[in-house]
Amino acid sequence: MRETKSSSLYNLFAISHQKGIEKSPDYHTHFHYEIFIFHAGNCKYLIDNKVYDLVPGDIILMDGSKLHKPFVTGDKRSYDRSIVQFSLEWILPVLEFLDAANLLKPFQMNHHSIYRTGDEHLKRLVGLVEDMEKLTMNGPLLEGENELKVKLMELLYSIRQYREEKLISSDDIYENNAYIQQIATYVQEHFNKKIMLEDVAKEINISKSYMVHMFKEQTGQTIMDYVMQYRLRQSIHLFNMYPDWTIKQISSECGFESEAHFSRFFKRHIGLSPSLYRKTYKTRGDKEL
């Protein structure tokens, strides 16, 4: 596995290229906008309640707020992708000054958009990403920040020139997506209550055994994995929205069986206890899951 990362501006901008992967990442969210470029391999991409069966050249634009993860199948050594992440606050003033804020629409409409590119167009996009990576290779380059913004805008303009006829939906590329959507939607509507797999299967009118097998096969994780990750994401949201709520209130509101269970799960996945997370991030709101 090979991964290169560059993050000269830390919370403002980051770029990385990864070739090969040991295992698919867990569901996560973040507070950056993201451009995901898929170069090679076999990969399904899950965003909120949608599943996309990617092909090389696909590009995902997302705001990062919804649970998402790649699920790599087949030879994991062949997986190859690039990611550009940037803060909305960092680039928006420039876009507004140039009356170009509409370049961010694909990130904001339904929280994500996905495009299927052609070889020549992809080559230009990858070239722009490589230019940005070079600008951030030598540590903090604040004097090059404007050049970095220009390159990012070139990338966004280039995607816009191509996107009108190449926007694709999950329904176009994955026939079982309806079941995944129904399961995820059920979880999102009932996450604060006890969820029984039998009830989910009854709701979407398929057998429990088929539902469990299909979800694991197509997402790489169990339904209960998704339930717990969604509850975790909601707890982060509540920490940020209601700083005066007690940890017990938040754990109960998010459907955890007890405050102790919530605290153990939170620390295992975030690396901090809920109380320490709140103390550390209450004024920043930028912790990535």
Overview of this protein structure:
The longest helix has 19 residues. α3 packs antiparallel against α4, α6 packs across α7 and α6 packs across α9. 46% of the residues lie in helices and 19% in strands. It has 289 residues and is of the alpha+beta class. The chain is globular and about 50 Å long.
Question: What's the quick description here?
Answer:
This protein is 46% helix and 19% strand. With 289 residues, it is α+β, with helices and mostly antiparallel strands.
Report the strand count: 9
Order of helices and strands: EEEEEEEEHHEHHHHHHHHHH
Low-confidence stretches: 283-289
Based on helices, strands and strand pairing, what is the structural class?
alpha+beta
Termini separation = 22 Å
Could you give the order of strands across the largest sheet? 1-2-8-3-6-9
Shape: globular
Content of β-strand = 15-25%
Overall average pLDDT: 86
- Helical residue percent? 40-55%
Largest sheet: 6 strands, antiparallel
Question: Using only CA atoms, what is the Rg?
Answer: 20 Å
Query: How many helices in DSSP terms?
Result: 12
